[in-house]
């Protein structure tokens, strides 16, 4: 199976490399036609530099474009610069500088300036042409620096951030992109204005009228940079985008009709000229492309772009940082407490009973110097006497006579051992109680540290908040009769649209109608909400319909036929997060059932409240340890399915191995940690895997042998219910006449949801 997977990866990587080479050549080919104020642009050099290892395909694409357009002599500077830059980056010994924006931009600018000067000397030209060559070289270096900076930020955050200087850089790249494709030699239409229309309408969809106005103005700048004669009519894009953004609530078709109507009126008002009909044709083509573009594609692109951060986003980031700082502070305090405990324990071990007796009896004795010469024998004798008094709670003169016959203070020695032993035991008992309190405090600090970390992580997951949509959701619930509503519409780190609503009552309306209304309001298809109620507060969590769906089925059998020591729960913490919790109590019967039920119930409540699996496990471990004087522990097996990102996480504490069945192969997962409730520091086994369509995840209790679980290899093509039924029958058959234990089998089959189902 690993060999097949490696071969598949190799073929996939090869196809990707070929595709990237073709795209680099095509991009360089198109960029080679670019013009800046009528002068050949050097954007094809920027494309070649940014293509990384695909410099040669970019060079060939540029050469082909110059050959087709008959401007090969004008492109000598660009072609030579591409070859030199590619050669320098190839022979550079340090890979750290290859993607450094400053280094690469300086290299690009230097190469372009060098060959521009050579060209000006070899083929003398006027001052205007030479100046444009220099300006074009500097612009090429700036574009490379800006593109690499934006790319680095994109790789770090996962989205194109339009805040601060990064937003300015993105705007410059957009202007250069429009300028480059505007020069494409298509006499009927203008690609720059078509693309500008498409992007402007997409900006209207995400950022309303402000987005339309800004993108329209940037498009005008790009067209002006390439062809000033076309900029006059293009100016209306900003006005049209500003006006059509006010009609966003009526849908895409209405936006397009309003945009075209406003544009047509503006063109007529500006006066009909030779570019009027071409301009309207470009606007019409861009509008048609916007309507024809699948809505999921538009939404996916929109999620990759994060606009200007508002105060809500900044407050969320600040809150996350403060919680993380508080968590680290508690961690530091816990570390200091651990050091204090270790120092006290070390000192307690050094303060033995025999040392105390010697300090009381022997220090002022006349024979002390004589006895000290026999140090090893003396230490051994005192250790034996201490062992006797600790074993029998009393020391007699005969014991002293036997081990220290030469002592001149036998009576005082015997009396001191017995009296100090009583005080010594009381001090040790107090010390043990204080130590237990310190350990308990350390556990509590550790739990608080984990809880704060979870809260910080949850707050940090919010990518961007939409205050306007949040206000509309609050208003809708207020109209339904729910006062004091708290609502938040946001995009999380997995680029999933979410809506969280908190009300101070139980929701009694139609959930289907509510979900449909909110879906229409935020323009995303939401799934039915996950509702959690604590006291008088109800949380309703909506999210986009996830990419994956899962079918979960189970099989259980008790060893005694009455009480099963296994307990499990399947629940949703949100639309995209599904959990399976399985616990096996110590032994069998009613006592084991209570321990496992206690663990599963508490884990479910903790995770539903927003805690992570690790924090829930730590709290369960602490609670089982202080649950009673009798020994109490249980295994803990948690599976977290993230159905939007397509991942699964396992947490195992004393639990049996789980299995992943994929493409006819079987992978064992976890199973190397102690059960919860045994040790103060019980580290669970945590692992994570990527999910694919058709995967089957198998979770079992220890009553199912591994050989039985591996029978899933014979269950290819079965659904989840058929799998657990077949494995359950096999497990029952194997336990007849042998060791009888409770049996629980849970199977989860993963399916990739069809886009048409969303």
From TrEMBL:
The keyword Cell wall biogenesis/degradation does not apply. Keywords: Hydrolase, Membrane, Transmembrane, Transmembrane helix. The chain crosses the membrane at residues 18-38, 45-69, 75-92, 104-124, 130-150, 162-189, 209-230, 242-270, 276-295. Gene3D superfamilies: PPM-type phosphatase domain. Pfam families: SpoIIE. InterPro entries: Bact_Sigma-Reg (IPR052016), PPM-type-like_dom_sf (IPR036457), PPM-type_phosphatase-like_dom (IPR001932). Residues 549-750 form the PPM-type phosphatase domain. PANTHER family: STAGE II SPORULATION PROTEIN E (PTHR43156:SF2), STAGE II SPORULATION PROTEIN E-RELATED (PTHR43156). This is PPM-type phosphatase domain-containing protein. It comes from Ruminococcus bicirculans.
């Amino acid at each position: 199976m690993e060999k097949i997977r490696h071969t598949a990866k190799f073929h996939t990587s090869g196809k990707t490399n070929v595709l990237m080479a073709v795209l680099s050549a095509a991009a360089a080919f198109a960029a080679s036609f670019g013009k800046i104020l009528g002068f050949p642009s050097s954007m094809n050099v920027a494309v070649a530099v940014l293509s990384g290892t695909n410099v040669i395909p970019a060079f060939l694409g540029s050469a082909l474009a110059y050959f087709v357009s008959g401007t090969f002599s004008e492109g000598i500077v660009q072609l030579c610069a591409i070859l030199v830059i590619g050669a320098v980056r190839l022979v550079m010994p340090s890979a750290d500088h290859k993607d450094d924006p400053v280094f690469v931009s300086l290299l690009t600018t230097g190469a372009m300036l060098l060959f521009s000067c050579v060209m000006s000397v070899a083929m003398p030209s006027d001052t205007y042409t030479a100046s444009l060559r220099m300006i074009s070289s500097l612009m090429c270096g700036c574009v490379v620096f800006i593109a690499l900076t934006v790319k680095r930020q994109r790789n770090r955050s996962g989205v194109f951030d339009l805040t601060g200087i990064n937003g300015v850089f993105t705007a410059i790249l957009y202007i250069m992109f429009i300028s480059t494709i505007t020069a494409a030699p298509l006499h009927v239409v203008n690609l720059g204005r078509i693309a500008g229309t498409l992007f402007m309408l997409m900006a209207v969809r995400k950022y309303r009228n402000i987005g339309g106005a800004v993108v329209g103005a940037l498009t005008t700048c790009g067209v002006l940079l390439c062809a000033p004669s076309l900029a006059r009519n293009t100016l209306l894009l900003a006005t049209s985008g500003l006006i059509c953004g006010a009609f966003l609530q009526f849908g895409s078709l209405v936006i397009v009709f309003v945009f075209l109507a406003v544009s047509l009126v503006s063109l007529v008002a500006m006066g009909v000229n030779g570019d009027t009909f071409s301009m309207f044709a470009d606007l019409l083509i861009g509008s048609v492309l916007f309507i024809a573009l699948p809505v999921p594609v538009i939404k996916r692109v929109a999620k990759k772009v994060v606009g200007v951060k508002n105060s809500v986003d900044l407050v969320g980031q600040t809150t996350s940082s403060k919680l993380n700082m508080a968590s680290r502070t508690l961690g530091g305090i816990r570390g200091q407490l651990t050091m204090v405990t270790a120092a006290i324990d070390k000192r307690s071990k050094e303060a033995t009973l025999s040392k105390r007796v010697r300090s009381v009896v022997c220090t002022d004795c006349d024979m002390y110097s004589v006895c000290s010469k026999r140090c090893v024998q003396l230490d051994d004798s005192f250790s034996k006497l201490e062992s006797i008094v600790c074993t029998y709670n009393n020391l007699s003169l005969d014991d002293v006579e036997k081990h220290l016959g030469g002592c001149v203070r036998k009576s005082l020695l015997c009396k001191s051992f017995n009296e100090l032993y009583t005080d010594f035991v009381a001090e040790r008992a107090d010390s043990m109680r204080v130590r237990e309190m310190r350990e308990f405090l350390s556990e509590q600090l550790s739990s608080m540290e984990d809880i704060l970390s979870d809260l910080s992580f949850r707050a940090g997951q919010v990518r961007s908040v939409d205050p306007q949509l949040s206000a509309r959701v609050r208003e809708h619930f207020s109209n339904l009769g729910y006062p004091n509503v708290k609502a938040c519409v946001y995009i999380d780190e997995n680029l999933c649209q979410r809506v969280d609503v908190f009300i101070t009552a139980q929701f009694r309306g139609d959930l289907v109608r509510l979900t449909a209304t909110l879906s229409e309001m935020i323009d995303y298809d939401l799934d039915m909400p996950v509702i959690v109620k604590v006291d008088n507060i109800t949380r309703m969590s909506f999210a986009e319909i996830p990419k994956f769906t899962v079918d979960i089925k189970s099989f259980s059998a008790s060893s005694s036929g009455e009480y099963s020591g296994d307990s499990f729960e399947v629940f949703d913490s949100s639309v995209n997060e599904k959990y399976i919790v399985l616990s096996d109590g110590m032994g069998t019967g009613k006592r084991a059932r209570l321990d496992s039920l206690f663990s599963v119930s508490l884990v479910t409540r903790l995770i539903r409240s927003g805690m992570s699996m690790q924090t829930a496990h730590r709290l369960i471990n602490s609670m089982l340890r202080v649950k009673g004087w009798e020994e109490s522990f249980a295994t803990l097996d948690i599976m977290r399915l993230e159905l939007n990102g397509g991942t699964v996480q396992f947490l195992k504490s004393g639990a049996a191995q789980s299995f992943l069945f994929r493409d006819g192969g079987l992978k064992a997962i976890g199973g190397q940690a102690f059960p919860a409730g045994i040790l103060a520091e019980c580290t669970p086994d945590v692992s994570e895997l990527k999910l694919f369509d058709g995967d089957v995840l198998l979770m079992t209790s220890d009553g199912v042998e591994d050989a039985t679980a591996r029978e899933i290899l014979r269950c290819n093509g079965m659904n989840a219910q058929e799998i657990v039924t077949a494995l359950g029958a096999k497990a029952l058959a194997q336990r007849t006449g042998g060791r009888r234990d409770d049996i629980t089998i849970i199977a989860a089959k993963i399916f990739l949801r069809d886009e048409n189902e969303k």
